[in-house]
């Protein structure tokens, strides 16, 4: 194992971390990670495939679900190489430019997923609170525009953030706490003033995930108010049932993200294992769970997947 003496490292090189304290078991630990990646990639890929090929699923709700699967695939593929290379080959070294590129995709897909969840909340709000105008409000052209807006919003703010990171000098330990590059983690290794970086990063998080979470909460307050005004208990149950999958997706996305942010801001003395576990939960659990939730809770998706499987077997 290399010695991490700061004087022998070029500033453009970092070292990623696997599971601290369990380095000798990395080959065995890679097995559940491989399974999680396989579930996430195959599950989201299958959802994308059935939505594209099944004409019955060419509706706004499923178009937004396909966007969610696309962002989950992007998150998985952004970390797949570095994580498995650490476990299989102990290949921990990553150049600064490659680290910047990985951060762009990880944070970009994260912000895009937050925007997609907001769009899905708006979809449920229109479907329940104003069903007669649903088809006229969420037209195909508007959904395409929303998709482009989500991509632009998720990526444009990252460019100045990462350019600010490139101006920093790194003269401390070059060992990161995670098996991938994460902006707060890299920024902590700098020996220059990072107040501008911290302030700009916080502003981006508040203006994306922060605003999205507030608007999602507001939409569900309005949905609950609308559903409670329905006289029939069966209709109430049916209306709430259409929101269960989305509420679950929101929970499994925001809870790990908030936990990781809190650990980076207030958990300076937390064991390295805590940082690593929360970081892996943050990136792996939503892509793994979303396909499972939507295939179990959404009858149309489940039927389309079973139809696809049965046709392949025949």
From TrEMBL:
Residues 43-294 form the G-protein coupled receptors family 1 profile domain. Keywords: Cell membrane, G-protein coupled receptor, Membrane, Olfaction, Receptor, Sensory transduction, Transducer, Transmembrane, Transmembrane helix. It is found in: Cell membrane; Membrane. InterPro entries: GPCR_Rhodpsn (IPR000276), GPCR_Rhodpsn_7TM (IPR017452), Olfact_rcpt (IPR000725), OR51/52/56-like (IPR050402). Signal peptide: none annotated. One of its GO terms (molecular function) is olfactory receptor activity. The keyword tRNA processing does not apply. The keyword Glycosyltransferase does not apply. It comes from the Eukaryota. Belongs to the G-protein coupled receptor 1 family. This is Olfactory receptor. It comes from Mustela putorius furo (European domestic ferret). The lineage of its organism: Eukaryota, Metazoa, Chordata, Craniata, Vertebrata.
